């Protein structure tokens, strides 16, 4: 993934996460989704047109559209007040695609760091599908927390490693650290936020049509 685009993917995931947590008004999050969604269309299109037919470059760039279309879909949902179901089922498509890109990073690209990062994204988009497509509203705050954290650990941090030229030497270590971090932190958060979202406990999650 283009390192500059990845930096701003981190930003929009963080904003959307805190929106789901109820810390940010949905309409105030829409512009960032438009900005990053637009950027993530320009970037892969440029990479594909300048790839000179290189299959690996085109393959890697194609994954960026999964992000751009998600963010633009979110922005339009917020702006137009649309039902979340269509976005939710698109997230199911992204979830399956992210699993494939994870496998490709482990095998074809020999990049375990992004192999794990794509697994993170697959998990996040699965949560979006459950929340938005299947209306599992009890997952709202949990999804928001996972999304906000992923903004930092799958966007901001690896982008800085790429931009400073440090990623290659640390890819293997990053993969192990992220794998352990994900299991421990996201597992613990599910226990904590799952209890808070149990029946009988007042929900504070924003309406799901504004999510992702």
How are the elements arranged and paired?
Blueprint lengths: L2 H18 L5 H24 L5 H8 L1 H17 L4 H22 L5 H22 L6 H24 L3 H30 L16
InterPro entries: AmiSUreI_transpt (IPR003211), AmiSUreI_transpt_sf (IPR038523)
Main location: membrane
Protein name: AmiS/UreI family transporter
Provide keyphrases for this structure.
transport; globular; 78% helix; single chain; 212 residues; transmembrane helix; Serine Threonine Protein Phosphatase 5, Tetratricopeptide repeat; disordered C terminus; AmiS/UreI family transporter; mainly alpha
Describe the model:
The protein is mainly α. The chain has a single domain, classed as AmiS/UreI transporter (Serine Threonine Protein Phosphatase 5, Tetratricopeptide repeat, Alpha Horseshoe), CATH 1.25.40.600. It has helices at 3-20, 26-49, 55-62, 64-80, 85-106, 112-133, 140-163, 167-196. Helix 1 (3-20) runs antiparallel to helix 7 (140-163) and helix 2 (26-49) packs antiparallel against helix 3 (55-62). The longest helix has 30 residues, at 167-196. The chain is globular and about 40 Å long. The two termini are 20 Å apart. The model is unreliable at 197-212 (pLDDT under 50). Keywords: Cell membrane, Membrane, Transmembrane, Transmembrane helix, Transport. It is found in: Cell membrane. This is AmiS/UreI family transporter.
């Amino acid at each position: 993934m283009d390192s500059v685009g990845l930096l701003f993917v981190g930003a929009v995931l963080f904003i959307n996460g805190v929106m789901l947590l109820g810390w940010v008004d949905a309409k105030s999050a829409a512009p960032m989704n438009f900005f990053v969604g637009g950027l993530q269309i320009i970037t892969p299109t440029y990479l594909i047109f300048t790839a000179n037919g290189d299959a690996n470059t085109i393959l890697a760039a194609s994954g960026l559209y999964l992000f751009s279309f998600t963010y633009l879909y979110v922005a339009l949902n917020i702006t137009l007040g649309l039902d979340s179901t269509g976005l939710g089922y698109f997230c199911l498509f992204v979830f399956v695609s992210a699993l494939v890109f994870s496998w490709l990073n482990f095998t074809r690209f020999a990049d375990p760091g992004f192999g794990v990062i794509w697994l993170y994204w697959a998990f996040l988009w699965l949560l979006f599908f459950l929340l938005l497509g299947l209306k599992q509203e009890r997952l709202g705050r949990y999804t928001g927390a996972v999304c906000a954290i992923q903004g930092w650990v799958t966007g901001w941090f690896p982008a800085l490693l790429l931009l400073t030229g440090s990623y290659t030497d640390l890819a293997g270590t990053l993969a192990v650290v992220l794998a352990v971090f994900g299991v421990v932190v996201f597992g613990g958060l599910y226990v904590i936020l799952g209890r808070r979202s149990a029946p009988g406990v007042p929900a504070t999650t924003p309406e799901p049509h504004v999510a992702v």
